[in-house]
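[step 3/7] inverse_fold.run input=structure_tokens len=403
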């Protein structure tokens, strides 16, 4: 023969074709190379698109979703309250670091400080420095360690019961009485100092220290965009935070995790080898693409008709049942097959049930239906009994078929 097929490539090699192919390859451009390496080119395009998507996702501007952030327009944000305070002549400062918050307090005029430290990041030295630089401090839903570090005589006393979705002032504080009822759902109550919005007993959702400089509010819903227009929430928020011309709205973040008062960024906290992790992963991805993306030409499809004997499938299923010890499943399959075959032999029709088949077979063989029913409905408990039962069922089926 003058040519033999190359296995797996679908190309024919003929005498003298090597030089011609080499000359043709030298005369082709990059598009021909891409056509002959479609797998590698496709993998490279997918990798580039995925990398571009990741970079674009990271660089795309994201909306502020921080709870009680003045830039968050969502239900749990406080953008609406910041705008209301701005209309009332309050200059709202939004520092993102402890040093910046301290600088805003020191440069302000009788500033009011709002602190919402939901993760308990600030320590006692930091809180003491903030208290010293503030004219008034409003702490929102503080944690136990934050309350202990404040050391103003206010202690946590539980949560507002669900049966009190609305709370009345029930105190003598001017701001609370002027605001009236507020939302109590999901709030915390405190004891110590002067308390308002009591659900039961002396504990209240608003607690003011004895020197009147520190107020603890146990609800973020009162300040949030979602509930601000309910009841007297907005009135209480404005009266608590709008007393001075400067308001420092400080939400501590992970950048302030430190004991010295100088926060560190995530890059500072990460180990030195982490910066090499991204390029290394990119190199591994490119290497995997080059390794798995090689193709030696189009595949040759060869039809291979396969005939599997019924006995092989039956034996294979039987081995699976035996390995999993599925005695009940094997018994049910044998019983159902025998009843279907006997129903066809006895001409009972597709609607015949097991009892109809048992009765007809007993009648045909002249046996007691109860004896045949006990045999057909038996549930073997062991493999040995399953084999004996299947042999008895096979014998019964043969007796009916020979009648």
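[step 3/7] decode complete -> sequence:
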């Amino acid at each position: 023969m003058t040519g033999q097929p190359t296995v797996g490539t679908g190309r024919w090699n003929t005498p003298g074709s090597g030089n011609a192919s080499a000359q043709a390859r030298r005369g082709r451009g990059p598009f021909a190379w891409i056509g002959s390496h479609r797998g590698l080119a496709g993998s490279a395009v997918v990798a580039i698109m995925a990398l571009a998507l990741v970079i674009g996702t990271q660089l795309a501007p994201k909306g502020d979703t921080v709870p009680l952030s003045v830039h968050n327009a969502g239900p749990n944000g406080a953008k609406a309250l910041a705008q209301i305070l701005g209309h009332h002549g309050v200059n709202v400062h939004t520092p993102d670091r402890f040093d910046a918050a301290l600088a805003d307090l020191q440069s302000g005029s009788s500033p009011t400080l709002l602190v919402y430290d939901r993760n308990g990041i600030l320590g006692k030295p930091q809180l003491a420095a903030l208290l010293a630089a503030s004219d008034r401090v409003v702490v929102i839903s503080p944690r136990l360690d934050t309350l202990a570090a404040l050391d103003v005589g206010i202690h946590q006393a539980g949560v507002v019961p669900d049966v009190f979705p609305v709370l009345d002032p029930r105190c003598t504080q001017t701001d609370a009485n002027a605001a009236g009822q507020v939302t109590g759902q999901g709030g915390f109550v405190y004891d110590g100092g002067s308390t308002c919005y009591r659900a039961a007993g002396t504990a209240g959702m608003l607690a003011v220290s004895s020197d009147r400089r520190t107020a603890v509010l146990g609800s973020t819903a009162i300040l949030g965009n979602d509930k601000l227009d309910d009841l007297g929430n907005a009135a209480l928020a404005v009266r608590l935070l709008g007393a001075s011309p400067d308001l420092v709205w400080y939400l501590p973040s992970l950048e302030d995790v430190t004991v010295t008062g100088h926060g560190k960024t995530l890059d500072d906290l990460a180990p030195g080898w982490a910066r090499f992790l991204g390029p290394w992963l990119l190199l591994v991805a490119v290497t995997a693409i080059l390794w798995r993306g090689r193709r030696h030409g189009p595949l040759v499809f060869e039809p291979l008709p396969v005939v599997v004997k019924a006995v092989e499938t039956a034996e294979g299923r039987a081995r699976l049942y035996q390995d999993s010890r599925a005695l009940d499943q094997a018994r049910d399959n044998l019983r159902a097959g025998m009843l279907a075959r006997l129903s066809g032999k006895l001409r009972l029709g597709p609607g015949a049930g097991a009892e109809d088949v048992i009765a007809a077979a007993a009648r045909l063989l002249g046996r007691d239906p109860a004896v045949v029913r006990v045999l057909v409905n038996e549930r073997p408990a062991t493999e040995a009994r399953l084999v004996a039962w299947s042999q008895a069922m096979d014998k019964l089926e043969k007796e009916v078929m020979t009648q």
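[step 4/7] annotate
The first strand starts at residue 4 and ends at 5.
Residues 362 and 370 are 9 Å apart (CA to CA).
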